[in-house]
Structures are given as C-alpha cells and as structure tokens.
Amino acid sequence: MTISTQLFEGKLIRLGPIDHDKDPDVISKWTHDPEYLRMLSLEPARPLSPAQVKKKLEKIEKAVEEEKNTFYFTIRRQSVESEENDRLVGFARFYWIEWNHGVGRLQLGIGDPRDRGLGYGTETLSMLLRYGFEELNLFAVRASIQEYNSIAMKLFTQFGFIEEARQREAILRDGRRWDLLHVGILRNEWEART
Amino acid sequence: MNAALFTGKQVRLTAENPQVMGEAFSRWDRDSEFFRLLDNDPQALYSRKKITDWLEKDIEKTENDSFFFSIRTLDQDQLIGFIAIWDIQWSHGSSWVSIGLGEREFWGKGFGTDAMRLILNYAFNELNLYRVTLFVFGYNERAIRSYQKAGFQIEGRFRQGIQRGGKRWDVILMGVLRSDWEAEI
Q1: Which domains does chain A have, with CATH numbers?
Q2: In which domain, by residue range, is B116 found?
Q3: What is the pTM of this model?
C-alpha cells in the first residue's frame, strides 16, 4: 500500500459527502419503510419529511466537525451511465470512537430494497474496515446488530467479525423479544485476512 | 405496597443540591483509581464550579430518560457516591445503570451492592422496565462480584476493549432481566 491510495473509490460504489440539496428527498423515502428503520435503529419507527431529514443531516455534519469521534459517508453508485453515477444508495458511519483505546463502532444501511443484495453493502464494509484500520488506525471495530437482521449478521461474519456479546431480550418488536448482538473484529484478525 | 423505595440495609438514595455533588465529584475525580474504575474517558480534572454547572444544567433539563441519585450511608448519613439509571428506551423497557462510590473506605463492604439492589427495585417496580445493562472493565473484579450478587449476568466480552498502562483488558457487558431479578429475591 502506498500513501496515495484511494480510500473512497470502489468498483460498484463510492463513499462520498452529503449532498444537502438532493439527498433529503431520497432519504425521506427510505424513512417511510419501517423494515429499513427497524434494521438500523431501536428508536420507534417514524417517517421523516425531506425538511426533517435536511435538519438531521446538518446536525450530523456539525457533530462530525465538532465532536471528532464520528465520520459520516453517503454511499453512491459508481457507474459509467451518467444517470446512475453518484446515485445515493445508502449511508455509512463510524461513531463513538474512543481514540485513547483505539475502539470504533460502525454502521451502514442500503436504503431502497431494490438496491439490496447487489453487493453494495459488501463493498462498503470492506472499504469501511480499511478506513477504520488504515486511516483511523483503530485497534478494534465493533457493530451492533438486531438478532432478526440475519442479512447483516451474515455480512459481518463473512468479514471475520465475531459475536462478542448478546444483550438478552433487549428488543421488543410486534410482541416478541429479540437479543441485541454485538460483533467485533481486532486489527490483527483483519490483517490476517487481507 | 412496599414504599421503602429509597432505603436499603446500609444506604439510602437521595437528591442533593448541585453544589454538594459538585464538591464531592471534584474531590472524588482526583482519585485516578476511582475514575479508571468508573469510566474509560481520558481523565481531565474539572473545577467544582464547572461540575456544579453541569449538574445544574442536567437537573434543569431532566428528561424522562434518566434518574440520578446520590448515595448516603444509613448510620452516619455520609455522602459516599452516586447511582443512575440512564438512556431508558421506553418502547423496549431497556436501560443502563452506572454506579460510583467516591469514598474509598466504603469499597468492598456491601454499600455498592445495597445501592444496586435498591435501584434495580426502582427500575423494575417503579419504572416497570424489562432489563438493565452495564459495562464493567475486566480489571474491576470487585465490581463484577457485586453486580453478580445484585442479579446481573455476564452477557459477553468486548475483547481487549480498553487499554490501561500499556495492557489491554476486556470490557464486560452485564445485564439483568426482570425475570433474573425476580428469581433472585
């Protein structure tokens, strides 16, 4: 690896900044899909208007700038077709980074069901891990996954994440309790695989 | 109806003026061992004024997702620490708890366990929560034993999640469900 490497360019997708003019409309649509919200958050599902999304994105960018323990990316299509190129398909973030212990948490989401299962999430996670270990120089990367999100569990396992903890019955959905799973990968485990 | 929500066998839970807790915290925080058992933030030392300001602000904006108590001994009425239920997710009945005993001579004598039993009773019988969660560092064996006595189970280990003095330790996740706690008492 050289220092002139490209961290944000993949084959199918690229990581980019927020587009405050165009992104809110797209993200507002995603928030009308309760399944999407339930995969990402334990908060009660609630659709957001484009104006509410815009405010939220501004707040996120302010936190990135001020708190220095969060990094936020949009996931955009990489394509030769100009219509498709740069189309917003998801988001990814590092959050709650504990610099003194070298620990960071990450999360990603692909918004439109039609964009899932196409490898965008897989490529994103591979780029995020590289960013976490080679740019942020973290020692460990962790993620929290709802027990019912088997697609995420499969994706993270595929990259070598190990289940480290299980918050028993922490989630109540449709009258049933589910565990909240915590997975993690250490620097040496990631290096051994790349 | 058991109304003794705030009185245990060795301690009681109280509300104190911000000045009182500000003075106590600014003194306790100068004990690095105390702070390293309590938190994994890089420690800074803050003035009594600054801490009091934070506490005042917190009390003003007291939202319905956290409940903070001070801990006093029953026999001498001495202020020895704090305990708090926080980050309540009401829709799931899930929450976190933190405890700290700043006065070292009260470590390892059952005061913390007594306070934890009180706040679990409060969590399950007053707030009607379903589970309570906490983090504890691998080097804090005394606390782990105390939490187990109060009904917590180890739910996992974040491998090498904390670095102290050049050595890495696990961060341990512990939790207690209403059913664990009911079986305990």
Answers
A1: 13-193 (3.40.630.30)
A2: 11-132
A3: 0.94
